[in-house]
Design goal:
Elements: E1 2-3, E2 5-8, E3 11-19, H1 34-62, H2 65-78, H3 81-94, H4 98-114, H5 119-140, E4 154-158, H6 163-168, E5 174-179, H7 187-195, E6 199-201, H8 206-209, E7 215-219, E8 224-227, H9 231-252, E9 268-273, H10 279-284, E10 290-294, H11 308-322, E11 326-330, H12 357-363, H13 365-378, E12 383-388, H14 394-414, E13 423-428, H15 431-435, H16 437-440, E14 446-449, H17 451-459, H18 477-492, E15 496-499, H19 510-516, E16 520-523, H20 528-537, H21 540-550, H22 556-567
Parallel strand pairs: 3-4, 4-5, 5-6, 9-10, 9-16, 10-11, 11-12, 12-13, 13-14, 14-15, 15-16
Antiparallel strand pairs: 1-8, 2-6, 3-7, 7-8
Helix pairs in contact: 1-2, 1-5, 2-5, 3-4, 4-5, 11-13, 12-13, 13-14, 19-21
C-alpha cells in the first residue's frame, strides 16, 4: 500500500493508464540563419496559441468558465512581451537555435516561481512548464498527447497532469488521478475537486510502481493506494465505494437544512473563495455565506494594480451572487511571500515575518484607499463584512480603521452612497493578536481565526520545510488554547468569532471548535455538507466537555488519538 496527499475525496477501482510525456531533449545547435530561427519560433508560438484557444473553448464547454480561465492564463504567458523579446534577443545575439534559446528563458521563469515561499504560487510553475512544453514540442516536431480519445474507463497515473491533459481528456472515462507530485493546491488537485473525481497526489514514484492495465483501488479521503489487490481487498473497496455514494446522497439531503447541534446550538457554515468564479462551488454545496474572499488574486497575473472600478465589479458580483448571505472580504494580503511584479519588494530573510498584508497597506495607503473605496461602493449590492489581515497590535487595527473612516468621509463629500451597516473585523493569525484579543475585541465587530498562519507562528514552524513539517500540527495544545482564548474574549465583548483556516473543515477538530463556542466555520466548499452532517449529530453540551478535556492533554498526538476514539 502507498500513501499520498488526499487531494479529492472518493473511492475508486479500475485499470491504470500511465500518462507519460516523452522527455524533450533540447540540444544547443549552430544555426545558419537567425531569420529562419525567428520564424520557427513565431510559427511554434502561433500554433500553440491556436491550440490553446481550442482547448480553452473545449474546457469552457465541458468543464465551465473557471477551468477555462486556466488557459486564458496560459495564453497570457505566450503573450508576455518579456518572454518573447528575451527569447528573440537570445536567438539573435547568441546565434542559438530557437528551442534552446526558448528553454533557457523559460527555465528562468520557472525557477522564479518554484523559489516562491507561497505554495499556490509555486504550483503555478507547473502551468508555465505546460505552456512551454507545448511550444517546444512544436519546435521539435513532437506529438502532443491527447486524452480526448479515451475509450475505456481508466485511472490516470502520471508524474503530474498538466492543465491541457485535464481540460482535453474524455472526463466520462476518467475514474481518478494518481500523481508523483503535487499538493492540495496543485492544478491536478484543484481540477479533481472541481470534476468531483477522486485523486491522490504527492505519491513520489507511483509511475515507477504501476504498469498499464494494473488494477488499482484507492481512497481519495485517506490517500491510500493499493496496486493489484486481492479479491478480499477489492470487495472491501467496493463496499466502501457503495457507502461513499450513499453518503453523498445523504449529504445532498442536507441542503437547505440548518447547521445546528442536537441541543440547538446553531452555527454558520461558510466557504473560502479566491475569485467570483468560485461562487458556483459555494452554491452547489449550500454555503451560508463567504467566510473569506482572498482579494489578492485580483492583483496577481497582471502587469499593474487593479483599478477601483475593476475591484468594484468583482466585489459587486460576489455580493450580489450571495445576497442576503454575508460575505467577508479580506483586504489585500500580499508582500513577503506573495510578491507582485509591478511593486518593488526588497528581499527579506523571513518573508512570513516581513513586509506584507496590513503592514504593506498602511505603508502604501494609496493602494489601501483604492481597495476600500471599491469595497464601500460595492456594499450597496449585498451583505458586506470587511476584514483586515495580519493585525499584530492595537495600533495597526486603529490605524486601519482610521483609514477606512477617512474613505467613508471622502465618499460622503462626493455624494457616493454606501451601506451604513458594514461589520468590520480582523484576522487572528498572529499569537500577539490572540494574546491581546480581549483588548482588540473592543474595537471590532468580529474575529476570524486564520489557523494556517496561527499554527505556523505559534509553533515556529515553516510549513514549507519538509524536515520539520511534522511539528506543524493543528492539534498542538498551544494552538488549541489560543483558539479557546480568542473565542472566549470575543464573546465577552459580544462579538462573533469565526475561523477561515483549514482547521475549520477538519472532521476531527469540528467537535472541539463547536465546544469552544466557534460561531462561524469557513472552509473549502466541498467540505461544507460533511461538516453540517457532523454538527447535526453532535450535542453542544458534550462538545463543550470534549473541548475542555483536550486543552488539558499534553501532546498533539494524544489529542488526535482521543478525537479518533470520540468519532469512532
Amino acid at each position: 500500500m502507498f500513501t499520498g496527499t488526499n487531494a479529492s475525496p472518493g473511492i475508486t477501482l479500475g485499470k491504470a493508464l500511465i500518462v507519460k510525456h516523452e522527455e524533450l531533449v533540447i540540444e544547443k545547435k549552430d544555426i545558419n540563419s537567425v531569420d529562419e530561427e525567428l520564424k520557427r519560433f513565431d510559427d511554434a508560438m502561433e500554433k500553440s496559441i491556436e491550440e490553446l484557444n481550442s482547448v480553452k473553448e473545449k474546457a469552457l464547454k465541458d468543464l465551465g468558465k473557471e477551468e477555462a480561465e486556466i488557459f486564458e492564463a496560459h495564453l497570457m504567458v505566450l503573450d508576455d512581451p518579456e518572454l518573447i523579446k528575451s527569447t528573440k534577443d537570445k536567438i539573435t545575439n547568441e546565434n542559438l537555435n530557437a528551442e534552446y534559446a526558448f528553454k533557457e528563458i523559460i527555465n528562468q521563469f520557472i525557477t522564479i516561481f518554484e523559489s516562491m515561499e507561497n505554495e499556490y504560487m509555486r504550483e503555478r510553475a507547473a502551468d508555465i512548464k505546460d505552456v512551454s512544453d507545448r511550444v517546444l514540442r512544436h519546435l521539435l516536431g513532437k506529438t502532443i498527447i491527447d486524452l480526448a480519445t479515451l475509450e475505456e474507463e481508466v485511472i490516470l497515473i502520471a508524474h503530474d497532469l498538466t492543465p491541457s491533459d485535464t481540460a482535453t481528456m474524455n472526463k466520462d472515462k476518467v475514474l481518478g488521478f494518481l500523481t508523483n507530485t503535487g499538493g492540495r493546491t496543485s492544478h491536478t488537485a484543484i481540477m479533481a475537486r472541481s470534476l468531483e473525481v477522486p485523486a491522490v497526489v504527492g505519491l513520489k514514484n507511483i509511475t515507477e510502481k504501476v504498469n498499464n492495465e494494473d488494477y488499482i483501488v484507492f481512497n481519495g479521503d485517506s490517500g491510500e493506494v493499493i496496486i493489484n489487490p486481492d479479491e478480499k481487498t477489492i470487495e472491501k473497496y467496493k463496499k466502501l465505494k457503495l457507502n461513499y455514494e450513499k453518503m453523498k446522497k445523504e449529504l445532498e439531503s442536507l441542503k437547505g437544512k440548518e447547521s445546528i447541534s442536537t441541543d440547538g446550538r446553531k452555527v454558520e457554515l461558510a466557504g473560502n473563495i479566491g475569485t467570483p468564479k468560485d461562487i458556483d462551488g459555494l452554491k452547489n454545496n449550500d454555503a451560508e455565506g463567504v467566510g473569506l474572499y482572498r482579494t489578492e488574486f485580483l492583483y496577481m497575473n497582471r502587469d499593474n494594480l487593479p483599478t477601483e472600478d475593476e475591484q468594484y465589479e468583482s466585489y459587486k458580483k460576489v455580493l450580489e451572487s450571495m445576497n442576503p448571505n454575508p460575505v467577508v472580504i479580506r483586504t489585500l494580503d500580499v508582500g513577503g511571500d506573495k510578491n507582485l511584479p509591478y511593486l518593488e519588494f526588497e528581499n527579506e530573510m523571513n518573508p512570513f515575518l516581513g513586509y506584507r498584508a496590513i503592514r504593506l497597506c498602511l505603508d502604501k495607503k494609496d493602494i489601501f484607499i483604492t481597495q476600500l473605496r471599491a469595497l464601500l461602493r460595492a456594499s450597496n449590492h449585498g451583505n458586506l463584512r470587511i476584514m483586515f489581515p495580519m493585525i499584530s497590535s492595537l495600533e495597526e487595527l486603529l490605524e486601519a480603521k482610521k483609514v477606512l473612516e477617512g474613505v467613508k468621509a471622502d465618499l460622503n463629500n462626493e455624494g457616493i452612497e454606501y451601506s451604513k451597516d458594514i461589520e468590520v473585523g480582523m484576522m487572528i493569525e498572529v499569537p500577539s493578536a490572540a494574546i491581546i484579543s480581549d483588548i482588540l475585541a473592543k474595537h471590532v465587530d468580529f474575529f476570524s481565526i486564520g489557523t494556517n498562519d496561527l499554527i505556523q507562528y505559534t509553533t515556529a514552524v515553516d510549513r514549507m520545510n519538509e524536515k520539520i513539517s511534522y511539528l506543524y500540527r493543528p492539534f498542538n495544545p498551544a494552538v488549541l488554547r489560543l483558539i479557546k482564548m480568542v473565542i472566549y474574549n470575543g464573546h465577552k465583548e459580544n462579538i462573533w468569532v469565526g475561523m477561515c483556516g483549514e482547521m475549520a473543515g477538519d472532521q476531527k477538530l469540528i467537535p472541539i471548535l463547536l465546544g469552544m463556542g466557534l460561531d462561524e466555520f469557513s472552509m473549502s466548499p466541498i467540505s461544507i455538507l460533511s461538516a453540517r452532517k457532523l454538527i447535526r449529530s453532535l450535542k453542544y453540551e458534550d462538545a463543550k466537555e470534549i473541548a475542555n478535556k483536550v486543552v488539558n492533554i499534553g501532546t498533539a498526538k494524544e489529542i488526535e488519538e482521543y478525537m479518533e476514539k470520540v468519532l469512532d
